[in-house]
Amino acid sequence: MIPSTITRRGFLAAASAALCAPALLKAQTRWPLTVTDAVGRMVTIAKKPKSIILGTGFNLFALSLIHPDPVSLLAGWATDMKTDNPFIYDAFRKKFPALDKVALVSNGQADGMSFEAALSLEADLAVMGMWQAEGEQGKRAIEYLQSIGVPVIVVDFNLDPLKSTPRDIRLLGRVLECDQQAENYAQFFEKRVDRIKARAVGKGEDGPLVLMDAFPSTTRGSWAVGRTGLGELITLAGGRNIADKNLPPQGGPVTAEYIIAAEPDVYIATGSPGGTYTVFSIGPGVDPAEARQSLQETVKAPSLAPLKAVREGNVHGMWNFFNAVPLNVLAAEAVASWVRPDLFGDVDPADSLAEINERFAAVPFEGAYWTSLTT
Question: How far does the signal peptide extend, from start to end residue (predicted)?
């Protein structure tokens, strides 16, 4: 029985901490540890990391799912999560005030890392995102960190999320000696993805046409998400992506004429809190009413209002940064319920989010992460 003086969340946090405390013999024999990262590099880590650089701040999400005090591990990090999603930054800072004192080494964008700042930190590990490692600046950062004796591992929650997310959560679990908690989350993820795969098998050939529109804007137009990243969730659910055949894998900008000619059955917008890039505001800290109202305003645009999906009320939206964090399983469930309600009417990502917050999250994820105009 849990003592009355201990909350259920406190009990679960203590249990999570125990899952990051392997037996002494196991810990002693683990190091040095050689792992294979998301880009196939074999990386040897000399000792248990206690001073980590995050090349993108969004990877704090991943650490927080498997470690009870992820901020205690940080030597330095990028500002991109703080800049794009300030509410979740504040939530982490309130739980872990030391976050304010973590050194800034990068903005997480294409202009790279401050090598001088990285050198001063004496870190014993760096973690970078796949999208960073593929760029020239990211490659330079990896080479520099390795030259000063800091091993670098690359994780992928973006390019091939259904395959790579559980794999790379397990990788982080090994590196942080949080194997069991990481395994629990990986199995949680796989169980939900496998449910979608099983129901949608053989259903995609005549599935509904879907436009996933990243940061729609009346001034910049639409960006149709392609077949990789979040676009993979469309085909997973048994839908057909309008950008699947004649755009690059990641998608690209499309004209109003392109969209109207495609005549999608389902429209899905992506955005961020406060409408940073678009009027559509959604994500951590956003009120559900704000998310829904801003989505209504979004589809009044001349290029979107005539669409069949809009006329028939099959309009939805979700947080764009699901493409950077291992919470992307929630996006998979939301997309499945929108694209094929006949197959996934009983799938509710809110249930999965509640379980994540109860079993895994060092800081609960709150706000409107998805919305719909049909409810």
Answer: 1-27
Residue 78 lies in a domain: yes
Q: Are residues 27 and 176 in the same domain?
A: yes
pLDDT of 201-232, one tens digit each? 988 788 999 999 999 998 889 999 999 999 99
Q: Is residue 329 part of a domain?
A: yes
Distance from C-alpha of 160 to C-alpha of 152, rounded to nearest angstrom: 20
Residues 6+ apart with CB under 8 A from 241: 209, 210, 212, 225, 226, 227, 231, 234, 235
CA atoms of 148 and 312, how far apart (whole Å): 58
CA distance 285 to 280: 14
Q: What is the chain's alpha carbon radius of gyration, rounded to the nearest angstrom?
A: 21
| Structure tokens that stand for 120 in this block | 């001063």
Q: Are residues 33 and 174 in the same domain?
A: yes
- For residue 56, what is the domain's CATH number? 3.40.50.1980
Q: Are residues 165 and 232 in the same domain?
A: no
Nearest to 363 by CA among 89, 115, 3, 120: 89
Look up the domain containing 164 and give its range: 8-193
pLDDT > 70: percent of the chain: 91
Look up residue 70 and give its amino acid. Answer: P
Q: Do 98 and 25 fall into the same domain?
A: yes
Report the predicted TM-score, pTM, of the whole model to 2 decimal places.
0.92
Please name the residue ranges forming H helices in the chain. 8-19, 24-30, 59-66, 80-84, 86-95, 115-120, 130-133, 136-147, 161-176, 179-200, 232-236, 256-262, 288-298, 308-311, 328-339, 341-344, 349-359
Distance from C-alpha of 74 to C-alpha of 60, rounded to nearest angstrom? 9
Does residue 333 sit in helix, strand or coil?
helix
Per-position DSSP letters for 6-38, written without gaps between them: S-HHHHHHHHHHHHT---HHHHHHH-SEEEE-T
Q: What percent of the chain has pLDDT over 90?
A: 77
* Residue where a domain terminates, one of 193, 218, 241: 193
Structural domains counted in the chain = 2
Give the whole-angstrom CA distance, residue 358 versus residue 352.
10
Q: Which domain-ending residue is among 163, 193, 223? A: 193
In whole angstroms, give the CA distance from residue 315 to residue 125: 43
218, 151: one domain: no
**What angle separates helix 179-200 from helix 59-66, to the nearest 10 degrees?**
110
Q: Are residues 237 and 121 in the same domain?
A: no
